[in-house]
Specification:
single chain; about 140 residues; alpha/beta; Rossmann fold
Length: about 140
Protein backbone atom coordinates (compact mmCIF):
# COMPACT_ATOMS: atom_id res chain seq x y z
CA UNK A 1 0.00 0.00 0.00
CA UNK A 2 1.15 3.53 -0.70
CA UNK A 3 1.72 6.09 2.06
CA UNK A 4 -1.95 6.97 1.77
CA UNK A 5 -4.13 3.87 1.30
CA UNK A 6 -6.97 4.06 -1.19
CA UNK A 7 -10.36 2.41 -0.73
CA UNK A 8 -13.11 1.86 -3.29
CA UNK A 9 -16.65 1.01 -2.14
CA UNK A 10 -18.78 -0.71 -4.78
CA UNK A 11 -22.53 -1.29 -4.86
CA UNK A 12 -24.78 -1.78 -7.89
CA UNK A 13 -26.49 1.63 -7.81
CA UNK A 14 -23.87 3.54 -5.76
CA UNK A 15 -26.81 5.23 -4.06
CA UNK A 16 -26.96 3.87 -0.50
CA UNK A 17 -24.48 1.54 1.18
CA UNK A 18 -21.41 2.54 -0.81
CA UNK A 19 -22.20 6.24 -0.41
CA UNK A 20 -22.64 5.88 3.36
CA UNK A 21 -19.42 3.85 3.63
CA UNK A 22 -17.44 6.42 1.65
CA UNK A 23 -18.85 9.23 3.79
CA UNK A 24 -18.02 7.42 7.04
CA UNK A 25 -14.46 6.69 5.89
CA UNK A 26 -13.92 10.30 4.82
CA UNK A 27 -15.41 11.58 8.09
CA UNK A 28 -13.51 9.23 10.40
CA UNK A 29 -10.14 8.95 8.64
CA UNK A 30 -9.87 12.48 7.30
CA UNK A 31 -7.02 12.89 4.86
CA UNK A 32 -5.29 9.64 5.91
CA UNK A 33 -7.21 7.60 3.31
CA UNK A 34 -8.20 8.24 -0.30
CA UNK A 35 -11.87 7.33 -0.72
CA UNK A 36 -13.87 6.38 -3.83
CA UNK A 37 -17.28 4.85 -4.43
CA UNK A 38 -18.93 3.58 -7.60
CA UNK A 39 -21.54 1.20 -9.00
CA UNK A 40 -21.98 -1.04 -12.02
CA UNK A 41 -25.42 0.44 -12.71
CA UNK A 42 -25.46 3.81 -10.92
CA UNK A 43 -28.76 5.32 -9.87
CA UNK A 44 -29.77 8.85 -10.76
CA UNK A 45 -29.42 10.11 -7.18
CA UNK A 46 -28.34 9.08 -3.70
CA UNK A 47 -31.07 7.33 -1.70
CA UNK A 48 -32.95 10.05 0.25
CA UNK A 49 -33.24 7.78 3.32
CA UNK A 50 -29.45 7.34 3.29
CA UNK A 51 -29.02 11.12 3.02
CA UNK A 52 -31.36 11.61 5.98
CA UNK A 53 -29.75 8.88 8.09
CA UNK A 54 -26.27 10.32 7.54
CA UNK A 55 -27.51 13.87 8.25
CA UNK A 56 -28.69 12.61 11.66
CA UNK A 57 -25.04 11.90 12.55
CA UNK A 58 -23.79 15.20 11.12
CA UNK A 59 -22.55 13.96 7.72
CA UNK A 60 -23.94 15.62 4.58
CA UNK A 61 -24.05 13.37 1.50
CA UNK A 62 -26.84 15.33 -0.20
CA UNK A 63 -24.51 16.65 -2.91
CA UNK A 64 -23.01 13.27 -3.80
CA UNK A 65 -23.87 11.66 -7.13
CA UNK A 66 -23.75 7.97 -8.04
CA UNK A 67 -20.75 7.17 -10.25
CA UNK A 68 -20.05 4.39 -12.72
CA UNK A 69 -17.52 1.72 -11.74
CA UNK A 70 -14.45 1.87 -13.96
CA UNK A 71 -11.42 -0.36 -14.32
CA UNK A 72 -9.27 2.69 -13.55
CA UNK A 73 -11.02 3.21 -10.19
CA UNK A 74 -10.27 -0.38 -9.21
CA UNK A 75 -6.69 -0.17 -10.48
CA UNK A 76 -6.10 3.01 -8.43
CA UNK A 77 -7.42 1.47 -5.18
CA UNK A 78 -5.59 -0.66 -2.63
CA UNK A 79 -8.78 -2.09 -1.13
CA UNK A 80 -12.01 -2.78 -3.06
CA UNK A 81 -15.08 -3.43 -0.94
CA UNK A 82 -18.33 -4.71 -2.39
CA UNK A 83 -21.41 -4.26 -0.25
CA UNK A 84 -23.19 -7.61 -0.37
CA UNK A 85 -24.95 -6.73 -3.59
CA UNK A 86 -23.49 -9.36 -5.89
CA UNK A 87 -21.41 -6.78 -7.72
CA UNK A 88 -17.97 -7.78 -8.83
CA UNK A 89 -14.86 -5.72 -9.41
CA UNK A 90 -12.29 -6.35 -12.08
CA UNK A 91 -9.55 -8.34 -10.33
CA UNK A 92 -5.97 -7.10 -10.33
CA UNK A 93 -3.01 -8.70 -8.57
CA UNK A 94 -1.96 -6.98 -5.36
CA UNK A 95 -5.41 -5.59 -4.54
CA UNK A 96 -7.37 -6.58 -1.47
CA UNK A 97 -11.01 -7.50 -2.05
CA UNK A 98 -13.64 -7.61 0.70
CA UNK A 99 -17.39 -8.17 0.64
CA UNK A 100 -19.43 -6.62 3.43
CA UNK A 101 -22.80 -8.37 3.70
CA UNK A 102 -25.21 -5.49 4.29
CA UNK A 103 -28.94 -5.17 3.88
CA UNK A 104 -30.01 -3.08 0.89
CA UNK A 105 -31.55 0.25 1.97
CA UNK A 106 -33.25 0.76 -1.42
CA UNK A 107 -36.93 1.55 -1.04
CA UNK A 108 -36.75 1.61 2.75
CA UNK A 109 -37.44 4.48 5.13
CA UNK A 110 -34.89 6.10 7.40
CA UNK A 111 -35.91 3.84 10.31
CA UNK A 112 -34.67 0.81 8.35
CA UNK A 113 -31.56 2.62 7.10
CA UNK A 114 -30.28 3.67 10.55
CA UNK A 115 -29.09 0.17 11.57
CA UNK A 116 -27.39 -0.27 8.17
CA UNK A 117 -25.67 3.12 8.65
CA UNK A 118 -24.49 2.08 12.12
CA UNK A 119 -23.25 -1.31 10.92
CA UNK A 120 -21.28 0.40 8.15
CA UNK A 121 -19.67 2.72 10.70
CA UNK A 122 -18.43 -0.27 12.76
CA UNK A 123 -17.01 -1.92 9.62
CA UNK A 124 -15.32 1.32 8.55
CA UNK A 125 -13.79 1.81 12.00
CA UNK A 126 -12.31 -1.70 11.77
CA UNK A 127 -10.98 -0.96 8.30
CA UNK A 128 -9.31 2.26 9.48
CA UNK A 129 -7.64 0.40 12.35
CA UNK A 130 -6.15 -1.99 9.78
CA UNK A 131 -5.08 0.31 6.96
CA UNK A 132 -4.57 3.74 8.56
CA UNK A 133 -3.99 3.33 12.29
CA UNK A 134 -3.09 6.37 14.36
CA UNK A 135 -2.28 9.57 12.58
CA UNK A 136 -4.29 12.76 12.58
CA UNK A 137 -7.34 13.91 10.75
CA UNK A 138 -10.96 12.94 10.89
CA UNK A 139 -13.39 13.47 13.67
CA UNK A 140 -13.27 11.67 16.98
CA UNK A 141 -15.78 8.89 17.46
CA UNK A 142 -19.04 10.04 18.96
CA UNK A 143 -19.74 8.47 22.32
Amino acid sequence: MADKPSVLFVCVHNAGRSQMAAAWLTHLAGDRVEVRSAGSDPGDRVNPAAVEAMAEVGIDISREMPKILTVDAVRASDVCITMGCGDTCPVFPGKRYLDWQLEDPAGQGVEAVRPIRDEIRVLVEGLIAEIAPGGHGGAPAAG
